[in-house]
Specification:
By secondary structure, the protein is mostly helical. It has one domain: Biosynthetic peptidoglycan transglycosylase-like (Penicillin binding protein transpeptidase fold). About 65% of the residues lie in helices and about 0% in strands. The protein contains twelve helices and no strands. The protein is globular.
Length: about 240
């Protein structure tokens, strides 16, 4: 029994040491990153671009679609979503593959601002968490959601929700049906696969997942879900 306790104690110490090292390295990278380019400066490249959509100019159904599928506690939580991370770890272990991620919308913004063009390892992912906390201290959740919507790539050369709504459907970003909102909300997850010119069928499968999450989280009714599935969402020619 004493031997087992000693082994457990050593294992716990090793785990604590490993986690401490990861946090130290991630924080060091975070400090270096924001020293080279402060967060406000990094975000300004999007906030100051022509055609930037404010939160009030984004269709409510699109907001609900993104929240439902990407980060359902986004407006309620400050900081990292440890519940989502735990759920992702459990589900990935259960299915023995990466079927679910645990990143938040704010963390995805951090990645897009700083680490989109480099290989992301553990250090970068830890640094993203520190950057995420700064983002949520500087900007409101509505401002962050707008930033997320404007910075994302939606395939077929469309950057930002304004271009995607107009380019795919010929409508403004505040005039989307539930079906179209769900379709556009799903594309940034993998724009190369889901862009509507070449990946329409895959995008429709992703849209169904988004609609299912909207139904499960109470954003739409069963009738609205059924109607959205029947709507023609093929892009305009």
């Amino acid at each position: 029994m004493k031997l087992i306790r000693r082994i457990l104690a050593v294992l716990i110490l090793l785990i604590v040491a490993a986690v401490s090292l990861l946090l130290f390295r991630g924080q060091s990278l975070y400090r270096t990153t924001v020293a080279q380019m402060p967060i406000e400066e990094a975000a300004s490249q999007y906030l100051e671009m022509d055609g930037y959509l404010s939160y009030d100019e984004i269709d409510a159904d699109f907001v609900n679609a993104v929240i439902a599928v990407e980060d359902k506690r986004f407006f309620e939580r400050h900081g990292y979503d440890w519940i989502a991370l735990a759920r992702a770890v459990i589900n990935n272990f259960r299915y023995k593959s990466a079927v679910e991620g645990g990143s938040t919308i704010s963390q995805q913004i951090a990645k897009n601002l700083y680490y989109q063009t480099r290989t992301r390892g553990i250090d970068e992912k830890v640094a993203e968490v520190f950057i995420m906390h700064d983002l949520e201290d500087i900007y409101s959740k509505e401002e962050l959601f707008a930033l997320y919507s404007n910075m994302n790539y939606y395939g077929d050369g469309f950057w930002g929700l304004r271009q995607a709504a107009q380019g795919y459907y010929g409508v403004s970003a505040d005039n989307l049906s539930i079906a179209k909102a769900a379709m556009l909300a799903g594309i940034p997850n993998a724009p190369g696969a889901y862009q509507l010119s070449t990946g329409y069928d895959l995008a429709r499968s992703r849209q169904k997942k988004v609609l299912s999450r909207m139904l499960a989280t109470g954003y739409i009714s069963q009738e609205e879900y059924n109607t959205a599935l029947e709507e023609d969402v093929y892009p305009v020619q």
